[in-house]
Amino acid sequence: MRCSCCQKELVRNLTLRELFHSANLRCYHCEKLFTKIDQATSCPGCGRADSSKLCSDCRLWHQELGFVMKNRSLFQYDEGFRKWIEAYKFTGDYRLRGAFVNELAQILQNYRDYLICPLPLSKERFEQRGFNQVRGCLELTKIPLKDLLRRKELAPQSEKSRKARLEMEQPFELRVANGKIRNQKVLLVDDVYTTGRTLFHGAELLYKNGVEAVESLTFAR
């Protein structure tokens, strides 16, 4: 069997659990790349690690928008995660999408009554990359996904400064009739929580169209 992250042959004995859940196997080296966020000691708003009280970013969002969206992140955005996201998302090694599918499937069990909506890419970005990096990971969990949003043709987030991200215009439009989402609960899923601006844009649009509650999940914060 191979490591789901670096794709090298595993040179260790596997437990019974690992044998039956082999999609998420990581070697010792790659296991150390991912630093899990302790939900008990993270910001109750955005999920920032080591911030058990509402962080300054969330207080600013509450001041600006009147609400704080609950976000949960699996890992810290550190050097290890950065290397993974660069190889997967920007280099395009699609084999890496299963690096943490078990952790992803486990946390999604907390959202069984939510519509799971991966944030969409623009048409241009999808054609450049060939895949949606968030949907690629989510599909391995076998949990049904709902494409509720469509992205307008704007400049990619990764090319913007923090200030530009915070000031960006609404990048989404609704892809479905609002009658299909009214009084529903939605979980928005993205790869990295940076400023939160993109997720809040999605939440604002959904709330305006009658959604009851919006939370978010990101791979890293």
Automatic annotation (TrEMBL):
User: Per the database record, which ranges form the Phosphoribosyltransferase domain?
Assistant: 142-220
State the source organism's domain of life.
Bacteria
Q: Which Gene3D superfamilies match?
A: 3.40.50.2020
Alphabetical list of InterPro entries matching this protein = ComF/GntX_DNA_util-trans, PRTase-like, PRTase_dom
Tell me its family. Answer: Belongs to the ComF/GntX family.
What's the name of the protein? Answer: ComF family protein
